[in-house]
Amino acid sequence: MANENKQDGLFHWNFDLQESDSDFTDIDYSANAINLTPKEEEAEIKPLIFVDGSYKSDASAGQETDSYEKEEEGSFRKYRKEAARKGAFAGRGKKEPDHPDYYEDQERFSGEGRNIPWKPILIGGGILLLALLGLILMLGGRDKREKVWARNEDKTIDQLVRTYFQAKTEANATAMKNVLVEGAEVDSLQMTLDAKAYEAYNDIRVYAYPGMKKTETGLFLTYNSKFKNIDTQLPTIAWFYAKPDKENNLKLMPLTDDSSPEYKYIYSTYAGSPVEKLAGEVSAANKKAIEDDPNLRKYLSQLAAKNYEPFVPETTTTVPPTTTQAPTTQPATTTAEPVSTAYVPSGPICYITEDQVRMRSSMDTTDLGNVLTAFEAGHALEILEELDGWVRVRDMLSQNKDGGAQTPTGQEGYVYASFISK
Prior knowledge:
Elements: E1 2-7, E2 10-15, H1 38-42, E3 48-49, E4 55-56, H2 58-88, H3 102-109, H4 118-140, E5 150-151, H5 155-170, H6 173-179, H7 188-197, E6 198-210, E7 217-227, E8 234-244, E9 250-254, H8 261-268, H9 274-292, H10 294-304, E10 349-352, E11 357-360, E12 371-375, E13 380-386, E14 390-394, E15 412-416, E16 420-421
Antiparallel strand pairs: 1-2, 3-4, 5-6, 6-7, 7-8, 8-9, 10-13, 10-16, 11-12, 13-14, 14-15
Helix pairs in contact: 5-6
């Protein structure tokens, strides 16, 4: 049952639901308690009952309802329009001008708003391109040669080596300058002196090793030096480094400076390599040649004394036989003994104890220009004067310590005392 209470012109409804009531209870209401104007009275009353029992007039309710409906209808239309727009531009990857993200994207990509940082992009791209180009050049220019010593197969290097020895034999300083690297010393006077002593350079063999750069090569040479008037050839080795000059012409660099990068590089490849074994064999053959041929040994001593005249073999003199005269009846006459022209030393005799001992014109070991000659072990000399650590000697004796023949130079000079034995 519903009880009606009128207070302050408002209806307040009390609902009394009982078990005897039906499922739906009729609500009676009356407008007698409301003071209405004639117009309002004529109007259809549409009360709105809220949960808290409050009431709003039909006019305000109608306005609120219409506003809500219009707002709902506008949202629906906007949704439908948006859905149609998305369907029309699906897959195109772009938005219509009135899309809320459109102007933001335009500012980002068109440059109309925020500027694109082209300078950093171009610099970064250039650096990346240069790095890629450098990597391509590095891989393309990589030295693919096998790092081992082997017989040379480069014809340009063979021709360069032959030209070098030809210039050396002919004492051609100009040709030698064209063969060697810029700055290499070419002593034309020394080349002339060497040409007087050396007849030829035979059996040249060239071994190559990849250099520090792709265009460079380390060289190990073996050859036989042939001296004039001496049959025995002297096995010899030499080190070179082949590298191009500014005009890209291949040149030879003698490896004589142990502080140069080329020397250090080639030296690092020597230990345990095939050329190390070969160098040992050549050194042994060199020593044997000197030991087996006394003429070669003497001539090397002559060269050590800076005497580059060709070797002169010793000549053997024979004493003519004496004739016996038949006795005569005349009285025999007495003839005087022939006077000996052989040199008779007046001082004590000493002997050289080591090979290649130098006799100098002065007591100065720092001056290479004062070397007169060099002696082998056993060479006999006459002592003229004993000084502090030095002995002044004369080379006028013709027999060595073992009684063998020796060729005296007839010179006087100074020999270090520790290299002689009385």
